[in-house]
């Protein structure tokens, strides 16, 4: 499944507008209706917590506000922790994989949105082998599927120009890894669906970078405007169409 402003792709199929209230995941049709409420959990890091945007501007919070305002029978829990990663655990910063069991214990959880995979690439120790990250995603998905929970992933947003330290900055190796993982997500076989944050936020003049209006200034974390753009895609992915 791919969600963008101009289209919604589910698995490898393109749904017509008349099927906007449904989605196809691995050849199974699920309907989002008032009779089938559930909970979506977001598992990510500092982008999903709204770091460098004003309080309450993070995209999961904005999606939750929309669900409440429209009385959509779907809850959303943001289980993101800044500076964490899919694969690597450090003191006080458990990996996504280490947190997955607790997320799967959320009552009535139906879907997990896996996001902010950029930290595996840009943070120390760097993981520049895309196959290692892809294998980690597969493991996360397999654990969720064993519990009957679907997994969506967001594509990895651009970080060109980011320079936190000389050892933690944008690199050509990191960019190649980012693009390879995104390509795997977009093929539609790695996860149950994906939300294309990268396509929406990337500067069309230089796709290694965020659009200026979506850049908080550090070239890694989206601005409040960028968070709103991500929220629009999240709403499209998680709620029925008109």
Describe the structure.
Pfam families: Lipase_GDSL_2 (PF13472). This is SGNH hydrolase-type esterase domain-containing protein. With 242 residues, the chain is of the alpha/beta class. Helix content is 32%, strand content 21%. The protein contains seven helices and 14 strands. β1 and β2 form a beta hairpin. The longest helix is centred in the middle third of the chain and has 17 residues. The chain starts with a strand and ends with a helix. About 12% of the residues have low confidence.
Secondary-structure blueprint:
Layout: E1 2-3, E2 8-10, E3 13-14, E4 22-25, E5 28-31, E6 38-43, H1 59-69, E7 74-78, H2 96-104, E8 109-114, H3 118-122, H4 130-146, E9 150-154, E10 163-165, E11 168-169, H5 172-186, E12 193-195, H6 197-201, E13 202-203, E14 206-210, H7 224-238
Parallel strand pairs: 1-12, 6-7, 6-8, 8-9, 9-12
Antiparallel strand pairs: 1-2, 2-3, 4-5, 10-11, 13-14
Which architecture does the CATH hierarchy give at level 2? 3-Layer(aba) Sandwich
The separation of the N and C termini measures 19 Å
Mean pLDDT reading: 88
Number of strands: 14
Shape: globular
Q: What gyration radius follows from the Cα positions, in whole Å?
A: 17 Å
Number of helices: 7
Number of domains: 1
Helix content: 25-40%
Q: Tell me the name of the CATH class.
A: Alpha Beta
- Major sheet strand order: 3-2-1-12-9-8-6-7
- Stretches where pLDDT is under 50 for at least 5 consecutive residues are 6-35
CATH topology: Rossmann fold
- Kindly report the name of the CATH homologous superfamily: SGNH hydrolase
SSE pattern, N- to C-terminal: EEEEEEHEHEHHEEEHEHEEH
Strand percent estimate: 15-25%
Helical/strand content category: alpha/beta
Largest sheet: number of strands, sense, barrel closure: 8 strands, mixed
């Amino acid at each position: 499944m791919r969600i963008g402003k101009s289209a919604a792709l589910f698995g490898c199929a393109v749904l017509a507008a008349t099927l906007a209230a449904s989605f196809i995941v691995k050849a199974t049709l699920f309907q989002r209706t008032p009779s089938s409420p559930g909970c979506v959990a977001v598992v990510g890091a500092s982008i999903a917590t709204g770091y460098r945007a004003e309080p309450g501007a993070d995209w999961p919070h904005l999606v939750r506000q929309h669900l409440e305002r429209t009385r959509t029978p779907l809850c959303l829990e943001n289980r993101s922790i800044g500076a964490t990663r899919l694969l690597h655990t450090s003191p006080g910063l458990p990996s996504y994989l280490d947190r997955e069991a607790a997320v799967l214990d959320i009552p009535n959880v139906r879907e997990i949105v896996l996001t902010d995979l950029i930290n595996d690439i840009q943070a120390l120790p760097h993981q520049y082998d895309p196959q290692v990250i892809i294998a980690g995603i597969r493991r996360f998905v397999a654990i969720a599927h064993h519990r009957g929970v679907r997994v969506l992933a967001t594509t990895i947003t651009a970080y060109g120009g980011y320079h936190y330290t000389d050892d933690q900055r944008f690199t050509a190796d990191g960019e190649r890894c980012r693009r390879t993982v995104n390509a795997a997500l977009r093929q539609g076989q790695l996860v149950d669906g994906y939300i294309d944050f990268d396509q929406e936020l990337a500067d069309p003049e230089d796709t290694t970078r965020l659009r200026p209006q979506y850049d908080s200034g550090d070239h890694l974390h989206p601005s409040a405007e960028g968070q709103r753009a991500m929220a629009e895609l999240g709403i499209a992915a998680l709620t029925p169409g008109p």
